[in-house]
Amino acid sequence: MGHDFEVKDSRTVYDGAIITLRVDDVEMPGGRVAEREVVEHFGAVAILARDDAGRVAMVRQYRHPLGHRLLELPAGLLDQADEEPLAAAKRELAEETDLAADSWHVLVDLALSPGFTDEALRLYLAEGLHHLDAAERIDEEADMSVEWVPLDDAVAQVFAGEIVNATSVAGILAAAAARDSTTGLRDVDAPWPDEPTALRNRRADDRGRRS
Protein backbone atom coordinates (compact mmCIF):
# COMPACT_ATOMS: atom_id res chain seq x y z
CA MET A 1 0.00 0.00 0.00
CA GLY A 2 1.25 3.52 -0.78
CA HIS A 3 1.94 6.37 1.60
CA ASP A 4 -1.13 7.99 3.25
CA PHE A 5 0.01 11.67 3.10
CA GLU A 6 -1.56 12.45 6.47
CA VAL A 7 -2.49 16.09 7.16
CA LYS A 8 -0.87 17.07 10.48
CA ASP A 9 -2.27 20.60 10.63
CA SER A 10 -4.34 22.94 8.47
CA ARG A 11 -4.98 26.69 8.56
CA THR A 12 -6.93 29.18 6.44
CA VAL A 13 -4.93 32.16 5.19
CA TYR A 14 -7.49 33.76 2.84
CA ASP A 15 -11.26 33.47 2.54
CA GLY A 16 -12.73 35.22 -0.50
CA ALA A 17 -15.93 35.30 -2.47
CA ILE A 18 -15.25 32.31 -4.74
CA ILE A 19 -12.06 30.77 -3.33
CA THR A 20 -10.46 30.00 0.02
CA LEU A 21 -6.71 29.45 0.42
CA ARG A 22 -5.63 27.02 3.11
CA VAL A 23 -2.19 25.70 4.01
CA ASP A 24 -1.88 22.04 5.01
CA ASP A 25 1.08 20.46 6.79
CA VAL A 26 1.38 17.07 5.07
CA GLU A 27 3.56 14.14 6.06
CA MET A 28 5.71 13.06 3.12
CA PRO A 29 7.27 9.62 2.53
CA GLY A 30 10.24 9.37 4.86
CA GLY A 31 8.54 11.37 7.61
CA ARG A 32 9.25 14.96 6.54
CA VAL A 33 6.31 17.37 6.97
CA ALA A 34 5.86 19.83 4.11
CA GLU A 35 3.49 22.74 3.54
CA ARG A 36 1.02 22.42 0.67
CA GLU A 37 -1.12 25.37 -0.39
CA VAL A 38 -4.64 24.39 -1.47
CA VAL A 39 -7.11 26.67 -3.21
CA GLU A 40 -10.61 25.52 -2.29
CA HIS A 41 -13.14 26.15 -5.06
CA PHE A 42 -16.88 25.63 -5.39
CA GLY A 43 -16.48 23.51 -8.48
CA ALA A 44 -18.35 24.18 -11.68
CA VAL A 45 -20.36 22.81 -14.56
CA ALA A 46 -20.13 23.51 -18.28
CA ILE A 47 -22.32 22.62 -21.21
CA LEU A 48 -21.60 21.70 -24.80
CA ALA A 49 -25.03 22.39 -26.29
CA ARG A 50 -25.25 21.04 -29.85
CA ASP A 51 -28.17 21.62 -32.19
CA ASP A 52 -29.51 19.31 -34.89
CA ALA A 53 -27.20 20.92 -37.47
CA GLY A 54 -24.12 20.07 -35.39
CA ARG A 55 -23.51 23.64 -34.24
CA VAL A 56 -22.28 24.37 -30.73
CA ALA A 57 -23.69 27.25 -28.66
CA MET A 58 -20.75 29.30 -27.37
CA VAL A 59 -20.53 32.58 -25.51
CA ARG A 60 -18.04 35.38 -25.95
CA GLN A 61 -17.34 36.76 -22.50
CA TYR A 62 -14.93 39.30 -20.98
CA ARG A 63 -12.40 37.67 -18.64
CA HIS A 64 -10.75 40.28 -16.46
CA PRO A 65 -7.57 38.36 -15.50
CA LEU A 66 -6.71 38.12 -19.21
CA GLY A 67 -8.14 41.53 -20.07
CA HIS A 68 -10.11 40.48 -23.14
CA ARG A 69 -13.08 38.42 -24.31
CA LEU A 70 -12.85 34.66 -24.80
CA LEU A 71 -15.03 32.33 -26.82
CA GLU A 72 -16.18 29.68 -24.35
CA LEU A 73 -18.78 27.04 -23.61
CA PRO A 74 -21.52 28.15 -21.19
CA ALA A 75 -20.43 27.41 -17.63
CA GLY A 76 -20.99 28.41 -14.03
CA LEU A 77 -20.11 27.78 -10.40
CA LEU A 78 -21.68 25.24 -8.09
CA ASP A 79 -22.12 27.98 -5.50
CA GLN A 80 -25.82 27.64 -4.69
CA ALA A 81 -26.63 25.67 -1.57
CA ASP A 82 -27.87 22.11 -2.21
CA GLU A 83 -28.02 22.58 -6.01
CA GLU A 84 -27.18 19.40 -7.89
CA PRO A 85 -24.69 19.65 -10.79
CA LEU A 86 -27.28 18.82 -13.48
CA ALA A 87 -29.69 21.44 -12.12
CA ALA A 88 -26.85 23.97 -12.14
CA ALA A 89 -26.01 23.08 -15.73
CA LYS A 90 -29.62 23.56 -16.83
CA ARG A 91 -29.75 26.90 -15.01
CA GLU A 92 -26.49 28.13 -16.53
CA LEU A 93 -27.51 27.10 -20.05
CA ALA A 94 -30.75 29.06 -19.67
CA GLU A 95 -29.10 32.10 -18.08
CA GLU A 96 -26.25 32.40 -20.57
CA THR A 97 -27.79 31.26 -23.86
CA ASP A 98 -31.60 31.28 -23.37
CA LEU A 99 -31.67 27.58 -24.22
CA ALA A 100 -33.06 24.40 -22.69
CA ALA A 101 -32.30 20.82 -23.72
CA ASP A 102 -34.27 17.58 -23.76
CA SER A 103 -31.26 15.23 -23.73
CA TRP A 104 -28.34 15.34 -21.28
CA HIS A 105 -25.23 13.18 -20.85
CA VAL A 106 -21.93 13.53 -19.02
CA LEU A 107 -19.27 14.36 -21.61
CA VAL A 108 -16.12 14.61 -19.44
CA ASP A 109 -15.06 15.33 -15.86
CA LEU A 110 -12.07 17.63 -15.37
CA ALA A 111 -9.66 18.29 -12.50
CA LEU A 112 -8.56 21.69 -13.71
CA SER A 113 -5.26 22.19 -11.88
CA PRO A 114 -4.84 19.49 -9.23
CA GLY A 115 -1.35 20.63 -8.27
CA PHE A 116 -2.80 23.44 -6.16
CA THR A 117 -6.59 23.48 -6.24
CA ASP A 118 -9.50 21.10 -5.72
CA GLU A 119 -11.38 22.87 -8.52
CA ALA A 120 -13.15 20.30 -10.66
CA LEU A 121 -15.77 20.59 -13.35
CA ARG A 122 -18.39 18.33 -14.88
CA LEU A 123 -19.03 18.98 -18.54
CA TYR A 124 -22.34 17.91 -20.08
CA LEU A 125 -23.45 17.28 -23.63
CA ALA A 126 -26.90 18.82 -24.14
CA GLU A 127 -29.02 18.08 -27.24
CA GLY A 128 -32.61 18.47 -28.31
CA LEU A 129 -32.35 22.22 -27.86
CA HIS A 130 -35.18 24.74 -27.72
CA HIS A 131 -35.25 28.46 -27.06
CA LEU A 132 -36.44 30.21 -23.91
CA ASP A 133 -37.38 33.80 -23.19
CA ALA A 134 -34.37 36.07 -22.84
CA ALA A 135 -32.82 36.08 -19.36
CA GLU A 136 -31.80 39.24 -17.53
CA ARG A 137 -28.00 39.58 -17.36
CA ILE A 138 -25.75 41.84 -15.27
CA ASP A 139 -22.04 42.71 -15.00
CA GLU A 140 -19.83 40.81 -17.48
CA GLU A 141 -22.79 38.71 -18.59
CA ALA A 142 -24.61 41.84 -19.78
CA ASP A 143 -21.84 42.13 -22.40
CA MET A 144 -21.98 38.44 -23.32
CA SER A 145 -22.96 37.35 -26.83
CA VAL A 146 -23.95 33.90 -28.10
CA GLU A 147 -22.25 32.47 -31.18
CA TRP A 148 -23.18 29.25 -32.98
CA VAL A 149 -20.07 27.42 -34.18
CA PRO A 150 -20.08 24.19 -36.20
CA LEU A 151 -18.26 21.53 -34.18
CA ASP A 152 -15.59 20.96 -36.84
CA ASP A 153 -14.94 24.71 -37.00
CA ALA A 154 -14.63 24.79 -33.21
CA VAL A 155 -12.03 22.01 -33.38
CA ALA A 156 -10.11 24.03 -35.99
CA GLN A 157 -10.26 27.11 -33.74
CA VAL A 158 -8.83 25.07 -30.86
CA PHE A 159 -5.82 24.04 -32.93
CA ALA A 160 -5.44 27.58 -34.26
CA GLY A 161 -5.20 28.94 -30.72
CA GLU A 162 -8.40 30.92 -31.10
CA ILE A 163 -10.30 28.94 -28.42
CA VAL A 164 -8.05 28.67 -25.35
CA ASN A 165 -10.36 28.29 -22.36
CA ALA A 166 -9.31 24.90 -20.96
CA THR A 167 -12.86 23.69 -20.30
CA SER A 168 -13.95 24.63 -23.80
CA VAL A 169 -10.92 22.98 -25.40
CA ALA A 170 -11.61 19.75 -23.52
CA GLY A 171 -15.32 19.81 -24.28
CA ILE A 172 -14.94 20.51 -27.97
CA LEU A 173 -12.30 17.83 -28.51
CA ALA A 174 -14.27 15.33 -26.40
CA ALA A 175 -17.46 16.00 -28.35
CA ALA A 176 -15.64 15.51 -31.65
CA ALA A 177 -14.11 12.26 -30.39
CA ALA A 178 -17.45 11.01 -29.03
CA ARG A 179 -19.18 11.76 -32.31
CA ASP A 180 -16.71 9.51 -34.15
CA SER A 181 -16.55 6.79 -31.49
CA THR A 182 -18.70 3.82 -30.54
CA THR A 183 -18.01 4.47 -26.84
CA GLY A 184 -21.19 5.60 -25.12
CA LEU A 185 -21.42 8.62 -22.85
CA ARG A 186 -22.25 8.35 -19.15
CA ASP A 187 -25.68 9.06 -17.71
CA VAL A 188 -26.16 12.29 -15.77
CA ASP A 189 -26.25 10.41 -12.45
CA ALA A 190 -22.81 8.85 -13.01
CA PRO A 191 -20.55 9.10 -9.93
CA TRP A 192 -18.31 12.16 -9.70
CA PRO A 193 -15.70 11.24 -7.07
CA ASP A 194 -13.69 14.47 -7.46
CA GLU A 195 -16.65 16.84 -7.04
CA PRO A 196 -15.37 19.61 -4.72
CA THR A 197 -17.10 19.87 -1.36
CA ALA A 198 -14.67 21.64 1.01
CA LEU A 199 -15.66 25.22 0.16
CA ARG A 200 -19.38 24.48 -0.02
CA ASN A 201 -19.22 22.75 3.37
CA ARG A 202 -17.26 25.69 4.77
CA ARG A 203 -19.90 28.15 3.55
CA ALA A 204 -22.70 25.96 4.92
CA ASP A 205 -20.98 25.90 8.32
CA ASP A 206 -20.66 29.71 8.19
CA ARG A 207 -24.38 30.04 7.46
CA GLY A 208 -25.17 27.68 10.31
CA ARG A 209 -23.14 29.73 12.78
CA ARG A 210 -24.88 32.95 11.70
CA SER A 211 -28.40 31.49 12.00
Automatic annotation (TrEMBL):
Chain ranges of the Nudix hydrolase domain: 39-171
Stretches for region Disordered: 182-211
Domain of life, source organism: Bacteria
Pfam families: NUDIX (PF00293)
GO cellular component: a single term: cytosol
Compositionally biased spans, kind Basic and acidic residues: 202-211
Keyword Hydrolase among record annotations: yes
PROSITE patterns, sorted: NUDIX
Molecular function in Gene Ontology: hydrolase activity
InterPro entries, sorted: NUDIX_hydrolase-like_dom_sf, NUDIX_hydrolase_dom
Keyword Ribonucleoprotein: no
Keywords assigned by UniProt, alphabetized: Hydrolase
Biological process, per Gene Ontology: nucleoside phosphate metabolic process; ribose phosphate metabolic process
Stated name of the protein: NUDIX hydrolase
Source organism of this protein record: Gordonia terrae
